[in-house]
Amino acid sequence: MRKKIIKKAMAISLSLAISVGLINPPTEYLNNNLSVYADDFENSISAFPDSYKPYLRNLHKQHPNWTYTAFNTGLDFNTAVVAETSNNRSLVENEYSDYLKSNAKGDYNSSTGQYIAKDSGRWVSASKNTVSYFMDPRNFIKEDTIFMFENLSYDKNKHTQSGVEGVLSGSFMSDVFVAYNDKSGNLKTIDTKFSKAIMDAASASKVSPYYIASKMLQEIGRSSYSGFPKVINGKKYGLGAGSAINGKHKTYPGIYNFYNIGASDGDDPVSRGLKWASSGSTYERPWNTPVKSIKGGAVYIGEKYINCGQYTPYFQRFNVNSKSSYDLYTHQYMTAIPAVAQEAKTTYNAYVANNGINTALNFVIPVYDNMPSMDTTIHIGSDGNRTGTVNDTINTRTGPSVGYDIIGRIKPGTRVTIIDYVRSDTANTNQFLVNPYWYKVSYTDGDGAAKTSFVSARFVDVDVTDEYYLGVAAPLDIDISNEEKAYFMTDNPAVATVDDDGNVTGVKEGTTNIRAYTVSGKCSVVGIKIVRIGVKFSKKKYYIPKNGNLKITANVYTLLEDKSVTYTVANTNIATVDASGNVKGKNYGTTTLTATTNVDKKKATCTIQVVKPVEKITLNRSKKNISVGNTFKLVASFVPKDASVQLLKWSSSNKSIAKVSKEGLVTAVKPGTCEITAKSVEGGKTAKCVINVIPKAIANVSAASYGYDRVKIKWDVQAGVTGYVVFKQNTSNKKYTKLATIEGANNNTYIDKGLKLGQKYRYKVKSYIAINGKDYRSTYSKVVGARPKPARGKIKYLKNKRRSIKVKFRAVRGATNYQVFRKDSVSNKYKKIAGFKSNKTYYFDRKVKKGVTYTYKVRAIVKVGKKNYKGKCTVEKSISR
Questions:
Q1: Same-domain status, 365 and 386
Q2: Contact in structure between 391 and 536 (CB atoms under 8 Å)
Q3: What residue stretches are annotated with the SH3b domain (predicted)?
Q4: CATH code, domain carrying 642
Q5: Domain hosting residue 688, numbered range
Q6: How many Å apart are CA 56 and CA 52, to the nearest integer?
Q7: Contact 177, 239 (CB under 8 A)
Q8: pLDDT tens digits, residue range 462-500?
């Protein structure tokens, strides 16, 4: 199952009824009694509010055969939104944007910062602004989402098996016959294609076959069971992967539920759905074959929904038809709120695939009382544009969605001014769910040029501009056009909450954002700080040079108009203070400064230390290379040496590369470059050290002869590196120079060729990793050395001849001579029995006797001048005569 484990199943949609007017009748009335104003389009949409008409006119230009019927719900729009938000009726997947999820009490755990799961662990409650977006029909009067308003009845003149195949394309049911597993686990087949079974189900249930096919795919997925499709007796059969449709469920083997009917929200919904499918005798239950499940489920849906006043996907998701067979806002097919829009697109694609998109279709579109305007604007909090800081490297775009062109990229820390705050206008539902709200911002790029573009709201940390008090409810300043309803949300309920009327209550000291959303898509945000009523200094301790001056002002948080304070110093021999908070240092030492509010006598204190100030600090290194995992202690020196406060704060510009302790101990984490900064607590003087983190030194390096003129160097693979550099000692000046660069972390050998026989060669190796065009090399490995010598040969075989034993061996590259050694089972001692030039690679041993076992080995020799260089003997080989 994919988008949602649901109470029953989701409706896609297809239409039949062609009608217009303001109505709320059952399907039969739509089909038989409403007339179509095909010749006068404007007259045909006269029952719609003006805010609907631009979207309808645009569709009419694309598809003049389509008609539209206004359905008057008689419901207040906001009342309907509140109802659909309550009682876990509307859910979104937890992986989607936090701006779409409710963090109200019961939906969010403020102490853990986690959303409360409402179904299968992945689904959480949707916020009111999310529900209002998906409930507002105007957002979906578009070519590919209009199908959520389509009548779902079966029309034998429009619906075809080939059209069903178009919906099933790419799924396990595409152009295959039905296979299934029975209760005993035996594979069975039915000589009916899935598409034909769906057509038969449509005819029996009077439900659109395209709807049936799309709904099943939404519920059970498209994947095939392992090994399928499978050809049996010349026919291709299909079987689905999910445990609800493959007959392999441990508790309910041989049972199928293609619609997840009965799979109510909670833990293990699949088992509940299969339990329902296995019990009872209605709707062709038990569903022990896929065909019975497909047909019985379609009849169930037709009986329970389509013929009960919920005859469009919209009505199935939002039961706002007061004349349906069920109470308002109940008997809704699903809790997954985005699915109705997603499945509408599936239906649209089915029509396109079947070349039926220009068929005369009718769409029944709800109309609510007090529909919000589409041009409403809002501003909350203090006046002026908001500012903020970018918190990640992001793309900037020409419009409010990832579908717009990229203008450029901006880095973390970039300051921006928020010009506008809007809902995404993307037609892609998945894109909306990830990045639903966008800021239009102005900023200065890296080249100093002024820019304006759109960025996703989640990538900007909004500055604090407004203050609210702990434990006190206070209204937001709200400026909204059209006097309409807005939906408010806090980013962090643990810091502050906001009610439906925009009253903010401080929960604990801290900062967060309050957001306001309108149905039109215009939004506003304000950064707030929650403060405790009373008086407070910004710092706990202040440093003042002797004879120096510093203005220290206490912050007063009170509901009283009089916020005046009186300042006093405990020891006036050390420092003095005037009525405005101007402190003067007199003598070295420490004292206490107190601020007391004049009305309610609230007090705050801080420490004053009169000091000999720090003028400069230096570090023992300005640049240092450190291998991954190693540490290095930075030591700071103060100027003057007798500065009163010799305390430092250490920081790293990139903790993922190198981190630093409060004592200045630097730990290398991964290759790269960063800066470690030491900052004096008093005076704020700084000193920096550039840290280059390099790979670890290579371990287990070895060198060995690889023939008479070669040496092979080998080392341990070092994961994550770009490659290795091999260095060789110059025999004349003993210095090491680069011999070769080997790319690839797994390429951990190198063969040095063209060497002199018998001479010793020495090597060292470094690993390196390339980052942004720069190579970070490790320190040298240990030095290893080797002398080229003749390679070790190999005896290919020993063979008894009539009067001898033939010893056949492989040629050794560069060999000038070979020596053959033998021992027998009598003496058990080796003796050289032959020596000859390298023009042959065999030897006939004629001094052999029957009944004796002989063992041989061969050695290659390379002669250079008058000196013979002997290789290692081959592995011995034996033969019995």
A1: no
A2: no
A3: 383-464
A4: 2.60.40.1080
A5: 616-694
A6: 6
A7: no
A8: 999 999 999 999 999 999 998 889 999 999 999 999 999
Cα–Cα distance for residue pair 835/49, rounded to 1 Å: 109
- The segments of the chain whose pLDDT lies below 70 read 1-39, 264-266, 354-356, 360
Quick one: pLDDT at residue 305?
86
Cβ atoms of 124 and 91 within 8 Å: the answer is yes
How big is the CA angle at 306 (ends 302 and 312), to the nearest 5 degrees? 140
- Token couple for 144: 């590919």
Q: Which of 335, 400, 307, 435 is nearest to 92 (CA)?
A: 335
Same domain, 381 and 515: yes
What is the reported pLDDT for 355?
Answer: 66
DSSP structural state of residue 839: T
Q: Is the peptide bond before 286 cis (omega within 30 degrees of 0)?
A: yes
Contact status, residue 648 vs residue 682, Cβ threshold 8 Å: no
Query: By three-state DSSP, how is residue 213 classified?
Result: helix
CA atoms of 502 and 477, how far apart (whole Å): 8
Structure tokens at 234: 């010349």
482 shares a domain with 397: yes
Closest among 807, 809, 805, 758 to 785, alpha carbons compared: 758
Cα distance between the two ends of the chain: 74
Is 50 strand, coil or helix? coil
Strand 523-531 to 464-469 pairing: parallel
339-353 helix and 161-168 helix, angle to the nearest 10 degrees: 130
The phi and psi torsions of 28 (rounded to 5 degrees) equal -60, -40
Residue 3 lies in a domain: no
221-226: long-range contacts, CB 8 A cutoff, minimum separation 24: 221/1, 221/2, 222/170, 222/171, 222/172, 223/172, 224/172, 225/172
Please state, in angstroms and rounded to a whole number, the distance separating the CA atoms of residues 762 and 771: 30
d(C-alpha 755, C-alpha 744), whole Å = 26
Contacts of 6 by beta carbon, 8 Å cutoff, 6+ apart: 219, 260, 263, 265, 269, 333, 334, 335, 336
CA atoms within 13 A on the CB side of 35: 7
Q: What is the pLDDT of residues 728-745, one digit of tens each?
A: 999 888 999 999 999 999
φ, ψ dihedrals at 835, nearest 5°: -145, 135
Q: How many domains would you assign to the chain?
A: 7
DSSP string, 6-38: -SS------------SEE---HHHHHHH----T
Length of the chain: 881
Residue 180 tokens, joined: 């299934």
Contacts of 282 (CB under 8 A, 6+ apart): none
Q: What is the pTM of this model?
A: 0.62
